[in-house]
Amino acid sequence: xxAVLSAAAIYVALLVVLRIGGKRTLGQTTTFDFVMLLIIAExxxxxxxxxxxxxxxxxxxxxxxxxxxxxLSLLKRRWPKLDxxxxxxxxxxxxxxxxxxxxxxxxxxxxEDVLAAARESQGLKRMDQIEYAVLxxxxxxxxxxxxx
Amino acid sequence: MDAPNxxxxxxxxxxxxxxxRTWKVERCGWVVLGAIVIAALFGLFGxxxxxxxxxxxxxxxxxxxxxxxxxxQSPTVLKLEVSPLRADGDRVRVxxxxxxxxSMSVSQIMPRPVRVEGGGDxxxxxxxxxxxxxxxxVVFRVEPERAWRVNGAIGLEDxxxxxxxxFIFP
Lengths: 148, 170
Hints:
The complex is a heterodimer. By secondary structure, chain A is of the alpha+beta class. Helix content of chain A is 60%, strand content 12%. Chain A has two domains: 2-87; 91-145, CRO Repressor. Chain A has helices at 2-21, 31-49, 55-78, 80-87, 101-106, 111-122, and strands at 91-95, 98-99, 130-135, 141-145. Chain A has a four-stranded antiparallel sheet with strand order 2-1-3-4. In chain A, helix 1 (2-21) crosses helix 3. By secondary structure, chain B is an alpha+beta fold. Chain B folds into two domains: 14-42; 51-169, Immunoglobulins (Immunoglobulin-like, Sandwich). Helix content of chain B is 22%, strand content 43%. In chain B, strands 3-11-10-5-8-7 form a six-stranded mixed sheet.
């Protein structure tokens, strides 16, 4: 019983904390984000397992987390508002080569991030080659190039 | 749903029947997972409503609370309530079957027994009471060392043994 409750508590707490942290927190994997991910994983592991190292406990924790995740995805499909609340919504940050600075500032994305995404995904060289750049729900930036 | 001719330029191997079968299995799997979680909430793997059990001797002088289901290498407690034989008695003596102690590692006994005796198929623990003749609570902190069924017997020196079984998940 405890395993299910602690798994649920950790799941909800992580969901809330990472949502508040903003989508850029773990959205891209820089070296430091990777270290953050490891630390979060290690800390949660201790809280989840405690002093119970049995196989049953481990399987029960995994089962609970997966069940919660599947359950939540079904709920999100049924209630789009919940989906928006948990996953956020995509946002345009560059339009016709012009960065929308206010939005970018709020989302903690700078032009360098957009240019990097443009180079990586589309092989673009300059900002004015971008028609749209969108900060996606996943925290990544997608780029639509201008048609030449 | 299936339109392979539209995608003739796409190099991909699709198998829709296989995919649909997988989805069906997935749906069944979700139900099983959900059932496991609900069973765990009710205490199938320890704790909760069905996991905890209490028994007491006919004389009413000994009662025991234990986990019907528990997990290997995970600490739990046996809670005893023992009354001394005579109202003015300041000692109670409880024994636990050797088979049980051999399958568990006992990390702590509260209150600490004033004497422990071995002999035959049991260990006898003697506890001091404050003398008023009332029942005292005794807590054994134990950790199962092996999985599967563990049979325990516990009793007062002059009374019938209380027999209990714990199922220990691996």
